[in-house]
Amino acid sequence: MRTSALAAAAAALLFAAACTPASQPIGAPVGEAQLTDDAIVAIDGYVLPIRRTLPAEGPPRAVILALHGYNDYAHAFFHPARYWAQHGIATYAYDQRGFGRTQQLGIWAGGPTLRHDLRTAIGLLRQAYPDIPLYVLGESMGGAVVISTLADRYQAPEVDGVILVAPATWGRQILSGPEATLLWLTRNLVPGMEFGGQGLGIVPTDNWEIMRRMRADRHVLPWSRADTLEGVVNVMTEAFDRAPDLPSPTILLYGDNEQVLSEDSIDALLEELQEGRHVIANYPDGYHMLLRDLNAEIVWADIAAWIDDPAAPLPSGADKRKRGDEEAEDEGTEEAEAP
């Protein structure tokens, strides 16, 4: 009888633990934030590993601060950063809390904490490069963090430009009723349940070598907790709400073969933005991972050119296209298939 009672108590504790969402918000201050050669140290002592790529000679003519997407980390910018360095642009990319090489991998930090970290990083780079233009780049989920930070009417730090690569704004405004219900149920009943992304038939890029390397990279998470997924939706929701207040200059870049974000979420975001204030670039051969696609160098070059002159036409002409223009079909664009 006693054994049965202990077993029941243990089961109840395990169930309670499974039903408790986990988080790792910013802690109490322990000192000043710091920028080192390989990390940003936040005011609570939390270490955000960085990858910095500098021009070989002389000071940079511009600095890009880059935020990676969901379950990814700073290595996502390895190749574009090397290209930009050859064109005099320095790139700093850090692992956001709960991702990559940080602590408590897979545990959601919360939108306020992610935005605080971004404001900290911007402030530190402003101190390090006081007279050099600073551009903030956000890819996918990183784009949502960037939008919700820099379109904040009350505490947005000043930057010289915003670069959004397939920004994720698939918030609650766009979720269907069943999707919203399922999200609520999993978060409240089984927040610690882990979900994998394989088997969904989604093609994020046509660069299969990059995908192979990502699958073998222990710093790229192959699973997601239910409570973390809800946290991402919350950030995307905030980003969508704040998007009309995005500062200029801003450039948004999308691929016509986007399969990670819903078309509804992209269309809704573009409708929310004030027409004519921002550059919208559409790539007929592009996928969600525009910066790592087979034709990624076209996108890298456009970003470098836009930094030189945000008002000038892009070298690729992507800013003259509308999403899904028939001319893309005439060029024989084909969807990539998994090997």
Structure, described:
The longest helix has 18 residues, at 111-128. This protein has one domain (30-323): Alpha/Beta hydrolase fold, catalytic domain (Rossmann fold, 3-Layer(aba) Sandwich), CATH 3.40.50. It has 339 residues and is of the alpha/beta class. Helix 3 packs across helix 4, helix 4 (141-150) crosses helix 7 and helix 5 (177-189) packs across helix 7. A nine-stranded mixed sheet has the order 1-2-3-5-4-6-7-10-11, sandwiched between helices. Strands 8-9 form a two-stranded antiparallel sheet. Helix content is 36%, strand content 15%. Strand 4, helix 2 (78-86) and strand 5 (89-94) form a beta-alpha-beta unit. It has helices spanning 2-18, 78-86, 111-128, 141-150, 177-189, 208-216, 226-242, 263-272, 296-308, 326-330, and strands spanning 34-35, 39-41, 47-53, 62-67, 89-94, 134-139, 161-165, 194-196, 223-225, 250-255, 279-283. It is built from ten helices and eleven strands. The protein is globular and about 55 Å long.
Keywords:
single chain; 339 residues; Rossmann fold; two-stranded antiparallel ribbon; 36% helix
Helices and strands, in N-to-C order? HEEEEHEHEHEHEHEHEHEHH
Mind telling me the C-alpha Rg?
Answer: 21 Å
CATH architecture: 3-Layer(aba) Sandwich
Report helical residue fraction: 25-40%
Distance between the termini: 57 Å
Annotated CATH homologous superfamily = Alpha/Beta hydrolase fold, catalytic domain
Question: Going across the major beta sheet, what is the strand order?
Answer: 1-2-3-5-4-6-7-10-11
What does the largest sheet look like? 9 strands, mixed
Total helical segments? 10
Low-confidence stretches: 1-18, 328-335
CATH topology: Rossmann fold
Structural class: alpha/beta
The top level CATH class name = Alpha Beta
Q: What overall form do the CA principal axes indicate?
A: globular
Integer count of domains: 1
Average pLDDT, all residues:
87
- In total, the number of strands is 11
Q: Beta-strand level of the residues, as a percent range?
A: 15-25%
